[in-house]
Design a protein that fits this description.
Layout: E1 6-9, E2 12-15, H1 17-28, H2 44-54
Antiparallel strand pairs: 1-2
Length: about 80
Amino acid sequence: MTTVHVELIGNKAMLSRGDLEQLMELARRTEAVEIETNEEDIPTVGIVRLAEQGGAFDWLADEEDIYSIEDLRVRYQ
């Protein structure tokens, strides 16, 4: 039996490169496998989705704004 450790973020799965290679080796035993990779240093979309779904920042919606546009020293456009 082979165990593959996967972390789920939204509808995506993250696993270590070693686990991916092991999974690919097992898959290749039964059929040809092609893999497409998207290598980013930080999976930004996944992190944002995790923060949104996690609800850790929901309390900020009830906080009053303490700064306004008049507080800016320089406004970039």
